[in-house]
Amino acid sequence: MGFIENEKNLITLALISIIIVGIFSYNLYINSNYDIDGNNLGCFDTIRNMFGMLPIIGSGIEQAVDVVTDMIDTTKDVVEKEVEKVTKTVKKIIKKKEVYNIDSNDFTYEEAPYVCQALDSKLATYDQIIASHKKGSHWCNYGWSANQMALYPTQKKIWDKLQKGPESSKNVCGKPGVNGGFFENKDLKFGVNCYGFKPKADPAKLVYHNDGISDEDIHIKRNDLLNKFKKMAEDGKLEVRPFSNKKWSKYSYKNSSYIINSNHNNETNESIYKEHIDDNDKNPNNIESENENENLEEESDVI
Prior knowledge:
Strand content: 5-15%
CATH architecture of the largest domain: Roll
Number of helices: 8
Structural class: alpha+beta
Largest sheet: 6 strands, mixed
CATH superfamily of the largest domain: Mannose-Binding Protein A, subunit A
Number of strands: 8
Shape: rod-shaped
Distance between the termini: 142 Å
Radius of gyration: 40 Å
Mean pLDDT: 74
CATH class of the largest domain: Alpha Beta
Order of helices and strands: HHHEHEHEEHEEEHEH
């Protein structure tokens, strides 16, 4: 019984195979019954055409490869464009407002807000400068700030390095933290601390590296009103200091140093300066000490 069942199975498989081969042959014959121009072929020509299918299949493969290649190229272009769009969007998202210093002791307190306004920014507040210092900001230059204060941040690491240098350089950047305070005299000439989107750096002055460099001082042409300051901004004469001696902006992802021009052909009329004020004399603590001494002298005269 087992042998008969196996034989039946073999016969069934053979019949199925014959049917499949027959259907395939029939379809192949029908599809090969026409030439390229669509004319009916005879039996022998059809058979020859059947065996001539390989070149047709080969050309079909080549066409398929071309189509796939075109699709890959198109997809690559689309992906590159989308990546470019995403990159631009990410850059816009990353750019945030920050505190930055205008490196020029040419501005009075009355002029300071207009300098920032010319750069689409506002005078930085004391709290904003403290927050900036905590993020690593360092510039050894007074800047008029909100509420008639002149301030600048000093990092302890840089201050420690200065203490190892010559005696004359130990106090050039004040003490670690936020230096300065309230100044009663609005006509003192300082730089300006602004809060807003920091202007782009001049590529010709940026030097990317791994080590920090010391700050440099520059002088910029003085102007009085907002329109003049806007003109200075357009001409690139409002020199913006780097966030620290290691990078341009708080949000920069590369270490860099920024080359600050040492001179800007200052055409300011010197007659507007009534007297030279030493940096030490700009310290509010010194001013308070002088006032106390004057009061003591007056009291001694009365006695």
